[in-house]
Design brief:
Strand content: 15-25%
Shape: elongated
Distance between the termini: 73 Å
Number of helices: 5
Low-confidence stretches: none
Structural class: alpha+beta
Strand order of the largest sheet: 1-2-7-3-6-5
Helix content: 40-55%
Order of helices and strands: HHHHHEEEEEEE
Largest sheet: 6 strands, mixed, barrel
Radius of gyration: 29 Å
Oligomer: single chain
Number of domains: 2
Length: about 260
């Protein structure tokens, strides 16, 4: 029998990475991908110790257990007995299921290499997991994005606003909610104003500063599920509010 060292290391690395990745996801444990890759590499290298004695079953079991313990110890954030047994049982179940699928394909399709099957599983799982996170994140985020339409000095302005649920900024006298928009969306809005509203606010350091704004009536806010109108105090800022350009304004939750 011929054993190729590079294939042995690579196949073990892929298998360990995939099985541990699925296990952590199923158990909803915190996953550090860098630790997982490093531990899988170390574990796959430890598997090469079987070359020292290929005729002993006990030695083979010892190497497999050593590889497994090394992988678990290096990738988990905190080693506890309960934590260890949860991962151990999950790994056993996933390994048997994966082995069953690979055996099925090898039995029914003689020309199919099980390594390709494993790689396909890895690619499909990782892509689906990343896609799920991306869709979930953007769906959640989109619920708080509103199209803002307002009429000021006979001009119609349109921009996107993000409803900041932790923002309760109001103008202290009128009690109107404050909308902060990037200056580029409303150039020259304050150039001919005679009266300003001065809105004090505190930053996280405790320092107090002020926004200067103007009152705008009957501003429209709408997204896929809501549409409403309200008066606001509009302030502008030179700061780019979102580096990904998903919105140009910060909305106080008091507008709702």
């Amino acid at each position: 029998m011929t054993i190729y060292f590079d294939l042995l290391v690579f196949e073990n690395f892929i298998f360990n990475l995939f099985v541990f990745y699925i296990s952590f996801k199923m158990l909803n444990f915190k996953l550090n991908i860098y630790k997982l890759v490093f531990s899988s590499m170390i574990s796959s290298l430890l598997c090469t110790l079987i070359f020292l004695n290929l005729n002993s079953t006990l030695y083979l079991i010892f190497v497999i257990l050593l590889s497994f313990f090394a992988n678990v110890y290096l990738c988990i954030p905190k080693f506890t007995v309960r934590y260890f047994f949860q991962i151990f049982i999950t790994l056993i179940v996933i390994s048997f299921l994966l082995f069953g699928v690979i055996s099925f394909f090898n039995y029914n399709f003689e020309n199919v290499n099980y390594l390709y099957i494993l790689l396909i599983f890895v690619i499909i799982f990782v892509i689906s997991d990343i896609s799920k996170k991306y869709i979930k994140k953007n769906t959640f985020f989109d619920n708080y994005i509103f199209s803002v339409i307002l009429n000021h000095e006979n001009k119609i302005y349109k921009f996107k606003g993000f409803l900041d649920t932790g923002n309760e900024l109001r103008e202290p006298i009128t009690g109107l909610p404050v909308v902060i928009v990037e200056t580029r969306c409303m150039p020259g809005i304050f150039y001919h104003e005679k009266y300003f509203y001065k809105i004090p606010y505190k930053v996280i350091t405790g320092n107090t500063s002020y926004f200067e704004g103007v009152k705008v009536k009957n501003v429209c806010f709408k997204n896929d599920s809501h549409e409403f109108y309200t008066d606001v105090i509009l302030c502008t800022t030179q700061v780019c509010l979102d580096s990904e350009n998903r919105f140009e304004a910060i909305l106080s939750r008091c507008i709702v």
